[in-house]
Each structure stands twice: as C-alpha cells, then as structure tokens.
Design goal:
Elements lengths: L5 E5 L2 H12 L5 E6 L2 E6 L2 E8 L8 E5 L3 H13 L3 E2 L4 E2 L8 E6 L5 E6 L4
Helix pairs in contact: 1-2
Length: 122
C-alpha cells in the first residue's frame, strides 16, 4: 500500500462503526484500535482505515479494499448489504479494468462507494 493510513468523518459513528465491522470481517479486516468517537481497522495489528465521529461526512469517497479471493469479495458484498449498505455493483469481473479484476461495490451509510476487489485468477 502506498498510503500509510486513511481516515474520514462519518455522520453517525455508531452506525458506521457497526457497518464497517461487519462488512470488512469477510476480508480479514478487523477493528484494531478504538478511541472515543473513532475506530481504526486493519490486519496484523496495524490500523490503516479510520472512521471518526464528525458533524457531517465528506463528499462521497471511493475506497477499495483488497480481497484475497473472489469468495471474500462475495462475502463482503453480502455482509455489507445485510449491514445496511446499498448495492452499487454486484460481484463480478470488470474487464474494462483488466481481465482478472473481480469486484463488488456498495454504498455505505454516508453515501461512500466502498469496494472489495480481488486481482487473482481463480
């Protein structure tokens, strides 16, 4: 990853914290740190993705999380939808990016376009 970490404000911290906790779990991403009004998610003890309580969220962002398999992309999509996310592109190949680009897109509680993507051939 070329960025050490990224974070943004959310309008309803509790709702977003729950959404990301459930949605990112299939990707092996878990809450690493939590402070009053903020949570850091990551793998292997390093928080790379942060949420913070704010008065309003930023303009919609696009964040793509790496998946180790296409099955994880599918599981992310289902977990995100069941946690209140809205469909923005069901799991599938996106050949316009490259022949092995398998991704799924959801809209989070603040309108951000959240993706899980696998670049591996399966």
């Amino acid at each position: 990853m070329i960025i050490d970490h990224v974070g943004f404000s959310v309008s309803d911290f509790k709702k977003s914290d729950e959404f990301y906790s459930k949605s990112l779990a299939p990707l092996g991403i878990e809450k690493i740190m939590a402070f009053e009004g903020s949570s850091g998610f990551g793998k292997k003890g390093k928080a790379e993705f942060w949420l913070g309580k704010g008065n309003r969220s930023q303009s919609p962002l696009h964040v793509a999380f790496a998946a180790d398999s296409r099955k994880q992309v599918d599981q992310f999509y289902e977990a995100a939808l069941s946690s209140g996310g809205k469909d923005n592109g069901a799991p599938g190949i996106r050949e316009r990016y490259h022949p092995n680009y398998y991704g799924a897109f959801v809209i989070d509680p603040d309108g951000h376009n959240i993706e899980a993507v696998c670049h591996h051939i399966e």
